[in-house]
Amino acid sequence: MTPTRLPPAPALSDSPAMGVRRFGRVNWLGLRTLARREVMRFMAVWQQTIFAPLMTAALFVMVFSLALGAGRGDIMGLPYLVFLGPGILMMTVIQNAFANTSSSITAAKVQGNIVDTLMPPLSAGELLAGYLAGSVVRAGLVALVIGTGMVLVTGRGIAHPGWTLVFVLLAALMLGGLGILAGILAQKFDQMAAITNFIITPLSFLSGTFYSVQALPQPFNMLSHWNPIFYLIDGARYGVTGVSDAPVWRGALICTGVVVGVLSLGWRWLRSGYRMKP
């Protein structure tokens, strides 16, 4: 009886090398899965992530309109409530975009399941894009809900929808990227709360949300123009009302530069595993 011959084993050179990607330039399946997870994570608690910001914005408008609106004159040629609306909208977008990425990464690190994100064959760019997708979708939904309410309350439409969309997108990318950096740096929720309370919240409140920076004395007027969040709020105000403190093109260029810098640093940290890998 002739023994059965087995086919020769493939040469080592014929096998895929260790570390070689098998998904092409972009792992679209992995990227889509991460983005979907980030979106489903906040949509599972939409009462807190979408409805609660609407209530908070409504309370801000109610308090300020009752306390200051009746007795305060126009600001930059606009009724105070009309002036206030875009600032409230962008401040809410900023807070939600930052919270989405920062809470996702920090919670994964604290719970010890960050390895589930680091182990799949996802590059640093794909991780960055997947996390940012959640912030962009959440910020867009919040902006749509609050913007609709603002139009109904003030009775005015959007002066420049294109510019409004541009600055909402820039805000989502900038604060989503900052949320990634904060999530990488923070090792526990207390550290994340400190970053939110002492950096993000003051920058968003002291950026012309409730007032025009033209009314500030020097050097505070000059310092306000060093705050990138000022340009986000000022750009959104131009998009909604057609009025702004600074040239809208300058604000768009500055915000784009900040976004590129923040996302580049986030990509570098994700690529090296800084404070992510044990």
Describe this structure in words.
It is a single chain. With 278 residues, the chain is mainly α. It is built from ten helices and no strands. It has helices at 28-43, 46-69, 80-111, 115-118, 124-154, 161-185, 189-205, 220-224, 228-241, 248-272. α5 (124-154) packs across α6 (161-185) and α5 runs antiparallel to α10 (248-272). The longest helix is centred in the middle third of the chain and has 32 residues, at 80-111. Residues 44-273 form the ABC transmembrane type-2 domain. It comes from Paracoccus nototheniae. Belongs to the ABC-2 integral membrane protein family. It is found in: Cell inner membrane; Membrane.
Summarize the structure.
With 278 residues, this protein is an all-alpha fold. Helices cover 69% and strands 0% of the residues.
The radius of gyration is 23 Å
Q: How would the global form be characterised?
A: elongated
Can you count the helices? 10
Residue runs with pLDDT of under 50 for 5 or more positions: none
Strand content: under 5%
Tally of DSSP β-strands: 0
Mean pLDDT rating: 87
Structural class computed from helices and strand pairing: mainly alpha
Kindly list the characteristics that best describe this protein.
10 helices; mainly alpha; 0% strand
Topology:
Blueprint: H1 28-43, H2 46-69, H3 80-111, H4 115-118, H5 124-154, H6 161-185, H7 189-205, H8 220-224, H9 228-241, H10 248-272
Helix pairs in contact: 1-5, 2-3, 2-5, 3-5, 3-6, 3-7, 3-9, 5-6, 5-10, 6-9, 6-10, 9-10
